[in-house]
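Bench log, entry 3. Co-assembly request; chain sequences pasted below exactly as received.
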Amino acid sequence: MKPAPFEYHVPDSLDQALNLMSQHAGVAKILAGGQSLVPAMNFRVAQPSVLIDLNRVLELGFIHEESARMRVGAMTRERHLEFDSSIARRIPLLTEATPFIAHPQIRNRGTIGGSLVNADPAAELPVLMLALDARLKAENISGERWINARDFFVGMFTTALEPDEILVEIEIPFMQARTGWSFMEVAPRAGDYALMGVAAQVTLDENGKCEQAKLVYLNAGEGPVDAKEAARLLVGEPVNDTLIQAAAEHASEKEINPFGNVHASADFQRHLANVLTQKALKLATQRAEENLQ
Amino acid sequence: MTQSCPVTIMVNEKEYKREVEPRLLLSDFLRHELGLTGTHVGCEHGVCGACTILFDGESARSCLMFAVQADGHKVTTVEGLAKDKDNLHPLQQSFWEAHGLQCGYCTPGILMTLIPFLKQNPDPSEDEIRHALSGNLCRCTGYQHIVDAVKLAAEKMK
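Structure output for the full assembly:
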């Protein structure tokens, strides 16, 4: 189990990296944290002929708090997201979910940008970016563009990035007032790929009725699955158990499309989605109510 | 043509200069180039944790990094823990005393996982210990004596 040979480049600025990407567009792979790419290379499932290592592009590792959003550099380690106090205050859903990403040894190396570009349907960060309405900044040598998270994940391990583009930054809005959140997943062991997982958010109006809700699932289709119809069932109503059950049933039966695997059949995944949705919505609603007072 | 990159890596406080092919994994560099065979190689895809080392003081899988990436960085392996063969690190001593290993294959990775864990969390609960160990597979012990060893180590290291 050894990687096939490759040509190695290690730029120390984003400009250099973008130039290298344009020279090697289509054949180059970006090496970010390497926690998915290197195993794939060890198995020789991935055999990139050119590797551009971003680990010395220090300008891509940052967490900045602005007036209504966090800006996070693509090379920010998952471990830094986990312990950042601004994120904990502004986007507690992200703080709650980060410890579910593999193990500390992996999070020490793994990056937010790497996980998003890898676009594994079983990964946590793509789900969270969708749930949080994040925007992603891609750059190539001729300029930059912003892509909404909901347009970024186009299929299994596939994103909207062009071959010469590098994901450089992620912008995540603060969670709104009167909003509760919850992230839950079921995995055979802590740190394993989850069989099913959900990120839930509930925003209440001043009268305690649901103003907005969000339910996004992992390992439930070809990418992160946003169950919009189920979430819409809650809007305009005070959130109660009957509504929560209806939303959970709709999402798990109608909106997600799990494939099943050696650990769980698709039916069992749907069952997990139903149970997790109910639990997550209850907790999110309870937290939103606490935020009303 | 094979690319060759010069690297200078600080391993266990000692500086090593070598020329490496970019595809050489850090785990293989430590074992084959430096002869530091304490770092064990199990699955080579980041699941078993046997190859865990400290990279700039933080635990990481050495099979998921290339040696060339460690250029200019500090690496600590299990060989860096004990002062000499008569003075084990308190964590190693605890594994000895509490029978925290059987075949020993997973042990170096477990120790290197626990060093930063105990630094961050000097008085861990059993749940926290088991959670911290979840990224390291042991197929002999059933973990019970490993957990005991970690509790003992936490006492010793206070």
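The mean pLDDT of chain A is 97. Chain A touches chain B at residues 1-8, 10, 34-35, 38-39, 41-43, 51, 53, 55, 79, 102-106, 108-109, 189-191 (CB under 8 Å).
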